Amino acid sequence: MNERDSEMMLAQLQRAGHTIATNEKSADVVILNTCSVREQAEIKAIGKAGYLTRMKRTNPNFIIGIVGCMAENLGESIFQRNSAIDFVVGPQRLHELVEVIENGGKNLRIGESKSTKSDQDFSYRLKKFNGTAFVSIMEGCNMRCSYCIVPKTRGKERCRPVDEIVSEVEFLAKNCVKEVTLLGQIVNKYIGMETVTGGGKATFVQLLERIHEISGVERIRYMSPHPRYFSDDLISAHRNLPKLCPAIHLPVQSGSNRVLKSMGRTYGREKIFEIVEKLRTAVPEIGISTDIIVGYPGETEEEFLETVSLFDAVRFNMAFIFKYSPRAGTRSAELADDVPEDEKERRNKVLLERVGEVSLLYNQRFVGKITDVLVEGHAKRGKNIMFGWTPNHHKVLFSATENDIGKIIHVKIDGFATTVLLGTIVD
Ligand code: SAH
Ligand code: SF4
Fold this sequence. Notes:
- The protein is an alpha/beta fold.
- The protein folds into three domains: 2-109, Methylthiotransferase, N-terminal domain (Rossmann fold), CATH 3.40.50.12160; 122-362, Alpha-Beta Horseshoe (pyruvate-formate lyase- activating enzyme); 370-426, CATH 2.40.50.140.
- It contains 13 helices and 16 strands.
- The strands form five sheets. A five-stranded mixed β-barrel has the order 12-13-14-16-15. A three-stranded parallel beta sheet has the order 1-2-3, sandwiched between helices.
- α9 runs parallel beside α11 (269-282).
- Iron/sulfur cluster binds at residues 141, 143, 145, 148, 150-151, 185-186, 226.
């Protein structure tokens, strides 16, 4: 979501005549797009801003702004932490950025948007794509997960009209985009269809079907779905829509029903088993990844072991494991953060090891096979080494040229390193 917002800001600024600096030292304006999900993310951003404000010594016109969720969450208190910061703009007012900067950056704006302009105006897109693009289909969140700051920072749920999303994807397809990732805090809760026509199908599934018809689009992904809204017709869509990629990120947060209830997630572990079984029946090779919070208030060893047993049963091939971080203003911040840091760390490690084992076996399944890869760009490893992604969301490295960026090519998988597959182009 933040990457999408950064791209939108960049496009807005370019349209207003600004250019991209090659590095932060040569820039006149630096904007930090921040996250508030965990305290660590905020500490890092404040630290980085502190470092950057030193540039004012050599360039008195240097402007530094903090935007995104931390700007919304901490608001004006950011100026008390570092008075050299020029402006803070929350995620709902990013479309006003040009105005803020052109006013010398002194104009601090936070809070909800009063503008009538859509905060996701798709005309603000980069002209050059590398074959993939994020498309926001909804903003904000109406759920009240006990630990989560997102509803405070991104506001109430707003779904974009379906025709607007379809037009954006058509525009992208005309600009050589082959893969779109639909974004929202709960994409499968999307209700932007004005008239529900699809025989009672979930509106999100109807949207997928509309996007599936767009010629030029070859791959569709979405992030993140919520287990509670994971309907059978979404599972059928994975069977019936060939462009829908066989990889799902399904954040489950915990394997303990007591913890899930306290988190306000509105489902139990049984629901996860049911979804995963149906998905694997529909698409056997589907990759399933997740988000987990370890060390939630009161999480006992037995409850943690329920998450481990969920991992053993589901066999996620990738997971983001987060150590619980209390966020002021959320419901769980009222509860004692009683799992010690070293215990959170241990639980984190246990789960990462589990995922590592599964991921190794999952990777092995692809060795010797030929797979489609959408070439995204240069890998850090070497001059002509490129990287791209398979439909199952594996990152692959291979030798190729710059001309291949944005194309879907066939790659034979020869082996793998820790987190990437290694291959050779076969045509
Ligand atoms: N809307 C998505 C999640 C967005 S936040 C969903 O509901 O699935 C991304 C991830 O950050 C969450 O899935 C959760 O695992 C993690 N997270 C959110 N708040 C957190 C907190 N207070 N401490 C630790 N991790 C947190
Ligand atoms: Fe946060 Fe829950 Fe909304 Fe996801 S669904 S953004 S975790 S409140």
